[in-house]
Amino acid sequence: MSDLPNNLHLALWVSTALIFVVLLISRISSRQNGSKHLPYPPGPQGLPILGNILQMPQKDQWHTFAEWARKYGNIIHLTLLDRHVIVLTSYEDADRLLNARGATYSSRPRLTLFRQHAGWDKLLGILPYGDSFHTQRRMLNGFFNPSASRKYHPLLEQHSRLLALQLSENSSKLHSLTRLHVSAVILRITYGHKAESEDDEWIHSSEAAMKSFDALGVPGSHPIDIFPALGRLPYWIWGTRFIQALEGLRKGALDLSIKPFATVKDQSKSGNAEPSIAARLIEENASNSGTCYDERDMSGACGSIYAAGVDANDLLIHSFILAMAVYPEVQRKAQAELDHYLRNERLLNVEDRNSLPYLTAVAKEVMRYRPIAPLGEFDVRETWSVCGAYYDFARLGFPHATEVDDEYEKMLIPAGSMIITDMWTMCHDPHDFPDPFLFNPDRFLYYEGGAPSLRKDVREPEDIVFGFGRRICIGRHIAMAQLWIIMATFLATFEIGLPHDEAGKEIRPTKEHFDQIERHPKPFPFQFVPRSKSVIHALRDAVSSAE
Description:
With about 550 residues, the protein is an alpha+beta fold. The chain has 21 helices and twelve strands. It is about 50% helix and about 10% strand.
């Protein structure tokens, strides 16, 4: 593009801009003329054509949504260019719409760029509601339902013990080691691959694939997503950065799903495949000719497991450690429950959860206090360009989308609307969680004779954080089991504390550490002091016997 004469360069940009504006005005007019005679939900007044783009904050959008909810109500209507956006800030509304009306609210917004140009058309997380979506959910449900999930518990226990043992030797590698073991569990379950070091090629490829997902900005917001016909134009009109990002995204789709699945397929043919979801799917769907039925759906389903699982539990573990360091009284109470239960006789198993209600309440409070994805499945601030001019957007993640017009409480929710679940506001609703900004596991407990039991009359954070309706996280049972066993193993092994400066004063995390909810949290030097030599010996023996 740089070789073109300047006047031709300018003419191309002007022509593209004019086409974009004309199509946008036409799209808006047609939607307005075709809508039902019902009001949209209330929301802040926007500008012509642009809508509410300039009112969207650059970060921490959920705080602004909470303010708008107090002014306009729990259901907020916005427009971003020609797109309707419905923000749900209360669990009750999300339940009545996304759970109860799943057939209407289970699709995804149009993601033309990702699906038709970048090769991500078969990843479960971005599939529209339809045949492939149902096929992949059906494939995975047999591996991740409550009963099937229990067979992975020994693997979760093995990695939680190895992680704790490695941290006892070098706690400065907290973040890299945590990510290694969370990734290793998912790769072992999905592909049978045994990742044993931070330099593992499979982990690096998967991480690069996830990073490539961020490179093109907000999914669904590029001009090609808004006007698919623009995808027929040469890519260079969007600039060198776009071309590089698109190439990286295509490689990411290959590395995340197609390439590892093909590796397992080759292993299966030679009889060398380790037990895994991919190997089982290949075996169950093999044809007489040696090919596999629904192969693209199988590889897409397997790739989605890593995409959905690693970041979530990595962030939850980081939030747990932060909470234990800052709230030592909660840590001591959880350790007292553990010590009374174990009596220094053995290491913990996942099946011990039902006997340790306070620790289970701590896990619930970690999820509620700092939900892993406040506005849905992803939340990263990105930038995208329209005809050479850059606009900042807050990533709204992968919202649901309506299939048809819907009426709710005498308001119109138009077909094709992006439906955003504001998990942060839901998890900090004072009606459901009094004193919501206080970290308090006791909110989930009642005490009888001094012994705690889990309450059944409190909103479950899992019902919010793992999503809604037919898009609910399919791996949530394993995710909760992994979070719990790592938490329990850490508390049984370490005193988790804050570092001290040269004067002996505690160095407390900054507000930035508390507010951060992103893929790679800012490192903080927590202290991990082993509680006893015997527990380290027990961990070492358990790890050695598992090898």
